[in-house]
Amino acid sequence: MLNASSPTRRRAQALRTVPAAPACAAMARLGDAVALIDRRDGCLRWTSDAWCTLLPTLVDAADAAALEPTLLGLAAALAAGCDDGAPRRLELGDAAQWGAELVAFDADQWLLRLTDRREQGRALQRQLDDREQLLFTSRVFSVGEMATTLAHELNQPIGATANLLRGLRSRLARRKPALDGEEAAALERALEQVMFAARVITRIREFTHSHQPRHARVDLAALLRASASLLDWDLRRSRAKLILQLPDDAVLVRGDEVMLQQVLVNLMRNALDAMRTDPPEEPMLTLTLSVKGHEAVVQVCDNGCGLGDDAASKLFVPFASSKPTGMGIGLSICRSFVELHQGRLWFTRNAVRGATFHVGLPLIKTPSQPANPTSAS
Domain end: 209, 226, 258, which one? Predict the structure, then answer.
């Protein structure tokens, strides 16, 4: 920064005190970062407050040359000009960090309007990181649910095999002639291997069950908006219209935000898949949030192919899927996550076409909430 008494700083301050034209003043009041640049010598004749806020390290810049290291390409743009009367759109700075519009303000001055793209880039990166985290969490939870289901299913035949081997060993021990040493050792080894498999299954179940939800206050309305934004590319690909019917006030539940988001995203993806299987004339995905008694109820409604009786009977059965490439564990995971939050998950068929999935979660009790509120109709 330049010293307060330096000639350059005094000149820059003097230039900014030049009365701005009404158009510039209006843009400044709107919060735009604008500057008037002299065509002849490139001096800054006026800058708005937003300009100084956007470029705090260049408050002392008196001409376009001082801006060039930050706004790369500005000097070339001023040299090229835009005398046809139409604003010229520019990309300035390293990696096009700045968007700009240059227009001939009058015969002697350029008007430069600057837009900071860095925050847009950071916001986009945050969204991409959120999507990556969601996909990673989905894979982790899918593997965990698959391991739990396999452990439950395999434990029964392993236990039965172990009991049969113990009974066989007891019977053969009483038989005459008794087993020889090699036969008895082989039977013991078989039983040991079965018990080892049972211990492996037990460790898997203990590992998957140890990941309980991290309970915190979650605003379901905000979570629905965030979840829908993560599927914007799927919505565009399906040409589906998204309708959000959400209350203005926060609807608070207690639970694990990542788990609940996984449930919502999975239900929305299933709805989009249903509309791609049998596309309606106007694909429509509707997300509704309402409060009924002690519960917050989320509804994910589509106008897709719907569910037949056979698919409905196997809806929450692990590894049973109506999709050609489906694994059949998505809805099973969703139901497990909802039940971990003391909630419930169910579905209904729509009157015309499609289906609606409902997620009911217990509300957080507020001090003003009565102990036993009357359920809403």
Answer: 209
